Sulfotransferase
Amino acid sequence: MLWASMALSGSLPEPLSRSIFRKFVVMLCSLLMSLYVFYCLAERSQSLPGPIIGGSEEEEPGFLDLASMQSGKRKRLLQRMKEQRVRLIQRSPLSHLFPRIEVAYSLQEEPHELAEGDSTLTPLEDGSKKLPQAIIIGVKKGGTRALLEFLRVHPDIRAVGAEPHFFDRNYDKGLDWYRELMPRTLDGQITMEKTPSYFVTKEAPARISAMSKDAKLIVVVRDPVTRVISDYTQTLSKRPDIPSFESLTFKNRTTGLIDTSWSAIQIGIYAKHLENWLLDFPMGQILFVSGERLITDPAGELGRVQDFLGLKRIITDKHFYFNKTKGFPCLKKAEGSSKPHCLGKTKGRTHPTINPEVVQRLREFYRPFNMKFYQMTGHDFGWDS
């Protein structure tokens, strides 16, 4: 023992106390561990993608100015970079040693708050393009754009912004062309698109079934009378010289015969179009969303949609506020942004004044078709009460 003490004394001219020695060892281990973590991160960063693809532009993006669009892109880029850092750290071999390290790189929000942000951005090299598993097939002026924008808040939904019109106008271009229009998705995410004219296109059901017999279809329906007036209002804003609503509605004003050749009238005969879809899809694969309740209770309708798609109910009341000026709900935080978001100026137009007698005649015309539609779907939408 004496010899050992002398040997130790000889190798350490100034002996260290045990406590100082322990501190030195701890510091050394911490330094080595930190170096290893940074080494792992540096190695991973070589495979990080550079450019980022944003969700498609809205079909009618005129309400956004260039500066706000560029600002939004920068915010989305920063948010995706932060999320990438979190993923890299979580995948690190030493991640179990730092159970709370993701907090330092997060947006200082709860998991569901993160979901409110970028739900449609995926790095170029992340995921793959897939054909849609769910499609919003109708109806025009029913509230399809609102539904799509609301759904894009969900982190497990990726949707193309513009309407592809593949199954009605571009079918000859082939499925490969169609797939290329879709955003990239990760495992567990659902690819979606919306083209309202599919619902009234005779060939669309068979074409979608040929692509996927398991596709889930969503139809946003609205009081046919309100819908046809809204349809006319949109056309009038683009072509002020069109005939009056009354002249387009009637074949013969004296007899009150409705002109069913007018496409705006045809769209509202929902039962007729649904019969065509049921030739290729069972009712269980079609969800009917109330356009009226999408305004009065957006969270409730979105809950039904999330259940239908097999997704966790992440979109709730906390995501919406009611805009009294526009007369419909808006998002408190849209996808890829931390600011409130309402649909553009082309949505929520003021309808022209229509003769009450014309409105009443339209209600009488649509009533039997509505009743049949209620029976087919097993749901009374209350348009005739």
In short: Residues 145 and 306 are 17 Å apart (CA to CA). The first strand starts at residue 52 and ends at 53. The two ends are 102 Å apart (CA to CA).
